[in-house]
């Protein structure tokens, strides 16, 4: 096959993320609720029965499966399953920026409104408790930021002889920012804090424009 044929076959191709098919894909919903006339954000505390990250604070969400038409459908489905509410109780679901992280995952976050808070009945196998925080708290308080160093540690059979520098190769040490919010004894951090911070930045940007 010559270069002309190769280019002809690739014309019009829509690019994606390299290795997209091998990435684990999840979707979450950042739920807005009204509490005594004020907008709050609802959070879950993961059940201590969960194998992964028990006791951590998160948004409703989970893995995208074959029954989900798209990430939005997954975020809504997982929210109904975890909070025990109907799909009709969730309005105005809007996509936020998605995250591709170093653990081979893509997380698709959405923001939406839960209109019937009184109907929430958390699934005890997944949710230990739910709580809300006023949106105003996050608008008025910046998260604390801490650096985490990611070290490179090749396996024992790594072929050093195939790279320039061998065992003395100068690996780049990366840093990531971990964000923390503390409210009423609760600690919100990790991907949840990153999604939350992104959302708050969008809200603040709209406030400046209005």
TrEMBL record:
InterPro entries in the record: CoAse (IPR045121), NUDIX_hydrolase-like_dom_sf (IPR015797), NUDIX_hydrolase_dom (IPR000086)
Recorded superkingdom: Bacteria
Ranges where the Nudix hydrolase domain occurs: 23-156
Cofactor: Mn(2+); Mg(2+)
Keyword terms of this UniProt record: Hydrolase, Magnesium, Manganese, Metal-binding
Stored CDD domains: NUDIX_CoAse_Nudt7 (cd03426)
Keyword Metal-binding in record: yes
A molecular-function term among this protein's GO annotations: metal ion binding
Keyword match Metal-binding: yes
Gene3D superfamilies: Nucleoside Triphosphate Pyrophosphohydrolase
Xref: PANTHER family: MITOCHONDRIAL COENZYME A DIPHOSPHATASE NUDT8 (PTHR12992:SF11), NUDIX HYDROLASE (PTHR12992)
The name this protein goes by in its record: 8-oxo-dGTP pyrophosphatase MutT (NUDIX family)
């Amino acid at each position: 096959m010559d270069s002309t044929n190769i280019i002809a076959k690739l014309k019009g191709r829509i690019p994606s993320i390299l290795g997209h098919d091998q990435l684990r894909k999840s979707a979450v919903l950042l739920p807005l609720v009204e509490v005594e006339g004020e907008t709050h954000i609802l959070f879950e505390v993961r059940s201590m029965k969960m194998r992964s990250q028990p006791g951590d604070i998160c948004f409703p969400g989970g893995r995208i499966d074959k029954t989900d038409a798209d990430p939005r459908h997954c975020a809504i489905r997982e929210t109904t399953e975890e909070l025990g509410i109907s799909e009709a109780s969730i309005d105005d679901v809007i996509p936020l920026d998605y995250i591709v992280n170093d653990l081979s995952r893509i997380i698709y976050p959405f923001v939406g409104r839960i209109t019937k808070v009184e109907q929430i009945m958390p699934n005890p196998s997944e949710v230990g408790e739910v709580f809300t925080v006023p949106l105003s708290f996050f608008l008025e308080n910046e998260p604390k930021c801490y650096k985490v160093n990611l070290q490179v540690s090749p396996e024992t059979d790594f072929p050093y002889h195939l790279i320039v520098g061998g065992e003395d190769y100068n690996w780049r040490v990366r840093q990531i920012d971990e964000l923390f919010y503390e409210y009423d004894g609760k600690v919100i951090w990790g991907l949840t804090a990153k999604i939350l911070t992104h959302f708050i930045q969008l809200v603040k940007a709209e406030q400046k424009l209005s």
